[in-house]
Structure formats: C-alpha cells, structure tokens
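Researcher: Hi, I'm a grad student and pretty new to this. My advisor asked me to get structures for two proteins we've been looking at. I'm not sure of the right format, so I'll just paste the first sequence and hope you can take it from there.
Model: That works fine. Here's the first sequence with its structure tokens right after it:
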Amino acid sequence: MKFKKAFSTLIFSIICIISSYSQKNIISGVVIDSLSKTPLPYATVRLIEKKNLKLLIGTLTDTSGKFVIQNIPCMEYICLIDFLSFNQKRIPIIIKKDSKSIELNNITLSPLRTNLQEIIVKGEAKITTKIDRVVYKVDSA
C-alpha cells in the first residue's frame, strides 16, 4: 500500500514538473484605432530579435483585434504592429526566464496623415446620338 502511494506521488510530481517546463512564454494584446477606439481586425504583429533584426514569428489579429503569440524563447525583441494606412508601432519587449505571460493590453495605432492631390478625370463618349442615327467610335471601343 505504501509503495502504491509513493509511486503515485512520484508520478504526480513528475507530471507537474514536466508541465511547468513545457509552458513557454506568451505575448498577447489588442490592437485598436486611436481615434475611433475600435479594434483593428487582421493587423500584422511581428516579433523581431533585437540583436540581429531577424524575424522570429508573426501573426494577424482576429476580428476583435486580439492576438496571441506563444512559445517564445527568452530574449530581447521588438514587436512591430502594422495596419494598412496606419502608423507602425514598435514596442521593445524583454522576455526573461521567470516571465510566463506578457499582456500588452490595448495597443493604439494612429492613422497616417497624408494630403491627397487634386485628381482630374477626363473622358470621351464612345457613342454619339444624332437626330437620325447613333454614331459609335470604333477606335475607342
């Protein structure tokens, strides 16, 4: 009886130790628009090693602007967040051995400020209607 109890305690301890080592570091957050405060779906989130500027992993936000990156080795990173027609955001991140989860919460991206030039659209009619006939311009068809 004592052997079964000791054996089951040993197995339980081994499972607990293995599960604690298997949990890797996690980075999560929500990307939102700075003006409207709405989530930005399908924004690009990339994790780049700070030492050699090598891309480690990238992901997209879901429809509610949330993202999760798992199994990240301990190192210094730069987190780049991009969205079309918004300014890029750079967040320095240091992942240590004792940190299991890093929550970036609400990451706000501001829209790009660009002034558009005037656009002039010119066109020609391909069909001309006269009193007694309709004239088609073949060279423009």
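Researcher: Oh nice, that was easy. Here's the second one.
Model: And its structure:
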Amino acid sequence: MLPFKTYTYRLFNIFVFLTWAISLNANEIQQDSLSYSDILKNAREIRYRDPDTAITILQNVHEEALQKGDTVSAVYALLEMPFSYGQRVDYSKSYDSLWHALFLADDVNNDFLRATVYGLLGRLYSFYKRKEQAFEYLQISLDIRKKLVKEGLLDRAYLVDTYYLMSSTYRELDEPKMAKVYLDSCFAYYEDVP
C-alpha cells in the first residue's frame, strides 16, 4: 500500500490532468493550439522520469504560444510546470509559473483559467500548511466557478473540481469533518458531469 502522502499526491495529479483535459473541451481553442495538446501530453508522460526535459518542452510551448498570440495555450503550459518542478523539488518555480499563469489569465480575462490557477495556488500553499492563504485561493476559485455557473457559461459539474480540492486540503490538514462536508458537495454535483 502506498504511503498516504504519495497516494494523495497521485490523486491530485490525476485530478489536475482531468481538469485540464475537461477544460480543453470547455473552451474554444484556436486550430493552431490543438497540436499543443499532444506536446503537453508528452511532457506529462515524461515528467516523472525526466523532469528537466518536460520543463524544457513546457517552456518551449509557452514561448511559442505567446509568440503566436495564443495566450490560452501558454497558460496551459504554465499550469503543467509545477508538477515537473515538484519532481526537482524546485517549489519556488512552481509558485512562479502559477503566478505568471494567473497574470496571463487576467490579461485575456479568462475566468475559467483564473479559477484553475487559484485552485492550484491554494493546493500549493496548503502543502506548506499555510492554511489561511490556501483556503483564500481555493475560495476564490470556487467563487469564480459559481459565478460562471450562474451566468450559464459553465456546467455546474465543474464545481466538483474545486470542492474536491477543498476536501483534500482539509483532509491533509487533519480536519476530517470539514473534508467530509466538501466531499459531500462533490457528490452533490458529481452526477451532472458531462
């Protein structure tokens, strides 16, 4: 059986990958950026055995996408970087890539991407037991997604992602009652997943 932290880390990686994959379908992406999805998939596949190469790939995608004016794809490349930097135990660059992603998401006024970045920032802060900041960012992510749902721009099933991040964070901070509350919220919206 895997140690609890390893198990949680793997679940988190799976969750982020699924969120990213679903978001590709949720947003209209230019024809040019479709080729980026294969490149990003390759970077995800090699990040555990060769994080340096994965980072190089992601940096190249990021730079090329920005040169082509495809800010959305540039942000997706940045969202992958913290996982590769984590393999190198370079957490300061994980923060940097997420903050840069947030800047770009703000620049193109993409609330879905902003919500995704805030969710990942919340999780990253929680790893260092910075509870107040972690939940501040997780709440921002949830609020943005609820607003998008209310405006009819996002299916309410996308709330599951953020509720799951909150549940996981409470569980890791040894607050099982609150973890269960947010896990119950996941199940309340789970049936709606497209």
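Researcher: Is there anything I should tell my advisor about the second?
Model: You could mention this: The radius of gyration is 16 Å.
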